[in-house]
Amino acid sequence: MTEGMEALARRVAALPPGRRLVALAGPPASGKSTLATRLADAIRAAGRSAQVVPMDGFHLDNAVLDARGLRHRKGAPATFDVAGLGELLRQVRAGGDVPFPTFDRAADAVVPDGGCLTAEIAVVEGNYLLLDEDPWRALAPMWDMTVALQVPEEVLRDRLIARWLDHGLAPDAARARAEENDLPNARRVMSGSVPAQVTLR
């Protein structure tokens, strides 16, 4: 993976000058956040400025999800503000410093303007960036490079259960949360996304 990361970073660093957008997609608990950070570090080591922009900042507010009857499906494609994400990507493409929202997992809430993109290359990480469904497929023209992370489902299951245990859920509740929401979302990502230019396993 280290050699693959360095090669990928060199490939990204070789993109033409100017603001560039790299999509890093994968199912929940596949390690996207960690990988995105490592990739941004490697891109900087290769001579270009880079920052991570997480898709999680576009979770719809819990009150909106409650009104739509979607709170129990939080994290599914329909529970994100895709239009808002698309608008952010257009602003990023235009250049300059661009504030972006982040997500506070402990508070289960979006932090408006939680980050600010100043780097030349944005590594955008999220589950559904390559999903071949409307309205997600409208994001496709935004990307200068696409990367997908593939992880076996049994590994995802163990990681997801551990995640919910860490959040204080009882073992049965953690297993139910993973099986009833997270894993269906993971399967949707794995079976319904367009092929990426680079796949990391």
Briefly characterize the structure.
This protein is of the alpha/beta class and 201 residues long.
3D structure, described in words:
It is a single chain. The protein contains 6 helices and 7 strands, in the order H-E-H-E-H-H-E-E-E-E-H-H-E. The protein has 201 residues and is of the alpha/beta class. The strands form 2 sheets. The chain has a 5-stranded parallel β-sheet. The radius of gyration is 17 Å and the shape is globular.
Number of helices: 6
Low-confidence stretches: none
Main sheet: strand order: 2-5-1-6-7
| N- and C-termini, Cα separation | 8 Å
Note the overall shape.
Answer: globular
In total, the number of strands is: 7
**How helical, in percent, are the residues?**
40-55%
Strand proportion: 15-25%
Average pLDDT for all residues: 94
The computed structural class is alpha/beta
- The rounded Rg comes to 17 Å
| SSE ordering | HEHEHHEEEEHHE
Largest sheet: 5 strands, parallel
Protein topology:
Layout: H1 2-13, E1 20-25, H2 32-45, E2 50-54, H3 62-68, H4 82-94, E3 98-104, E4 109-117, E5 121-126, E6 145-149, H5 153-166, H6 171-192, E7 198-200
Parallel strand pairs: 1-5, 1-6, 2-5, 6-7
Antiparallel strand pairs: 3-4
Helix pairs in contact: 1-2, 5-6
